[in-house]
Write a structure and sequence with these properties.
Number of domains: 2
Radius of gyration: 25 Å
Structural class: alpha/beta
Strand order of the largest sheet: 7-4-8-3-9-2-11-10
CATH architecture of the largest domain: 3-Layer(aba) Sandwich
Low-confidence stretches: 1-39, 329-338
Strand content: 15-25%
CATH superfamily of the largest domain: LigB-like
Number of helices: 16
Distance between the termini: 29 Å
Number of strands: 19
CATH topology of the largest domain: Protocatechuate 4,5-dioxygenase, Chain B
Helix content: 25-40%
């Protein structure tokens, strides 16, 4: 079995909450327990250090940078940017070139993606729970709808305010955006996993939710960090800009690896935001960008000669093309829509036996061999939960709400997770496995709900999301507990998501899904 996918499956469940309520009345601890923001507005944290805290001084400084910037006239749509994020006195001139290029253009949402410098973000990326971000120039709303769609579309994204709390890389871009654009929203994202697997998954999810929308994606990154000679900084940065200009993420990765392997004195990185840049390139390409235009380069030694022995580079790049107005061509092949076709009796029994044999082998050896089958249904991407019961009591329940893997792999991953990784229970042992019944729920895609009255008990599973809190019940939970609709939604909010009991009546976002549920006990 793909162990990376197993970790992804586990993360999905930890973030979304297991799909079943334990028999104890004590609610389980939520693994994604970042506290809900005490205010819906994120206050500036680097005003007065990275840039002026006084609004008039800040406005004057940004306006000066923009007035001095002379980027080339760019024909076509600017879909993405790369911009630096150091203190304005060092990188503001380069940033001016990036943002001057989009002055007076129109965007509905600006997706800001950068590296988390202070706090590690697990595999995936962190979204902010705040509904607006503030600078001395005013407040910019967050695209809450897009944030919720992204959370529903991919388990790679989660709400985590910690990495955003003292992070400067996105905040410093806002005064420029506030000066050159009007009437726009933002979606702030930070990450620390720059692997090809993670950047590809993040980009795929972003493309899925923004296709057909007028968005700008901005990669916030500085370039070489701390070469002991300014000439080396410029050589490294020039090579990286050449790779970026190819608009080929593989070229960027290859150049980064090559330059870091050359033994340049005190070179810590070629791009502190390598991952954010690659995600930006991939999304921009998918949305229609066909070229990368280098707008400006400088480094700290050119601004302050005393930094020549500990240099940092800054670059501005625009990703330009003709924006696609509809779904991206080939997108369906890259992300096939999960089917809703029900499984027949033979397929159900196959999966139940697979789940049991997978758990048995994993408990005995710590490994699980991939399953081979020619049944095409088993290779369709499906969202799955596996639930374990012992003597009629819940013993584990984990799965994924979004289809990201073939059905057979999803079942294997969820089975292992339910048996060994549900944080509410100790791991299942080989000795008790014979006493455990296995139940599998194969889920339909999530659908947003406008009217809670349309939710049907016993038919619909429900996901609730508000701020940094979220929780889910599978369809069978309300039936097992004897709840009506209002009780189910109240329990979901209060005991699964840690929200106010009546949050479902207010600003919380609700999604429903159906499930085909089958278990070993039914065949006995």
């Amino acid at each position: 079995m793909n162990t990376a996918r197993f970790r992804i499956a586990l993360i999905a469940v930890v973030l979304l909450g297991a799909g079943c309520r334990p028999n104890s009345e004590q609610p389980p601890a939520e693994a994604n327990s970042s506290p809900v923001a005490t205010t819906s507005v994120r206050a500036p944290v680097v005003a007065g250090s990275f840039y002026p805290a006084d609004p008039e001084q800040l406005r004057a400084k940004v306006s000066t940078f923009l007035a001095l910037a002379k980027p080339p006239a760019l024909a076509g749509d600017i879909i993405g940017l790369m911009a630096p994020h150091a203190g304005y006195d060092f990188s503001g001139g380069v940033a001016g070139y990036a943002f001057k290029a989009i002055q007076d253009r129109e965007y509905d949402t600006v997706i800001l993606i950068g590296p988390s410098h202070r706090q590690t973000v697990p595999t995936g990326a962190a979204l902010s729970s705040h509904n607006a971000w503030q600078t001395p120039l005013g407040t910019v709303p967050v695209d809450v709808e897009l944030r919720q769609q992204l959370l529903a579309a991919s388990d790679r994204f989660n709400i985590a305010d910690g990495p955003h709390a003292y992070e400067h890389c996105l905040e410093v871009e806002l005064p420029f955006l506030q000066t050159v654009l009007s009437d726009f929203k933002i979606l702030p994202i930070v990450m620390t996993d720059f692997s090809k697997q993670n950047t590809a998954a993040l980009a795929e999810a972003l493309v899925q939710v923004v296709s057909g929308r007028k968005v700008l994606i901005v990669a916030s990154t500085d370039m070489s960090h701390y070469p002991a000679a300014a000439a080396e900084a410029q050589r490294v940065d020039t090579a990286m800009l050449k790779a970026i200009a190819t608009l080929d993420p593989d070229e960027v990765y290859a150049a980064d690896e090559k330059l870091l392997g050359e033994g340049v004195a005190d070179l810590h990185c070629t791009l502190c935001g390598l991952g954010p840049l690659v995600v930006t390139m991939k999304v921009a390409q998918a949305l229609g960008a066909d070229r990368a235009e280098v707008l400006r380069y400088s480094n700290s030694a050119q601004v302050e000669p005393q930094t020549a022995t500990r240099c940092v580079g800054y670059g501005a790049v625009a990703f330009v093309g003709t924006r696609r107005s509809g779904p991206v061509q080939g997108e369906a092949e890259a992300s096939p829509k999960p089917t809703t076709e029900e499984l027949n009796e033979a397929q159900q029994q196959f999966l139940l036996k697979l789940a049991r044999s997978t758990i048995t082998e994993h408990l005995a050896t710590g490994h699980t061999a991939p399953c081979q089958t020619e049944d095409p249904v088993m290779h369709e991407q499906r969202a799955v939960f596996v639930t374990l019961h012992k003597a009629g009591q819940l013993r584990g329940c984990i799965g994924q709400l979004v289809a990201r893997a073939p059905l057979i792999e999803a079942v294997q991953d969820a089975a292992i997770s339910a048996a060994t990784q549900d944080p509410r229970f100790p791991p299942v042992t080989s000795n008790e496995l014979g006493e455990i019944d296995i139940e599998i729920s194969v889920l339909s895609p999530l659908t947003a709900v406008d009217d809670p009255e349309t939710i049907e008990v016993g038919k619909h599973g429900v996901l609730v999301i508000q701020g940094s809190r979220q929780g889910v019940f599978l369809p069978q939970v309300a039936v097992e507990q004897g709840w009506d609709r209002e009780t189910m939604l109240t329990e979901l909010c209060a005991h699964k998501a840690g929200l106010a009991p009546d949050a479902w009546k207010g600003d919380a976002t609700l999604y429903v899904f159906t499930a085909q549920v089958f278990g070993e006990h039914e065949a006995q």
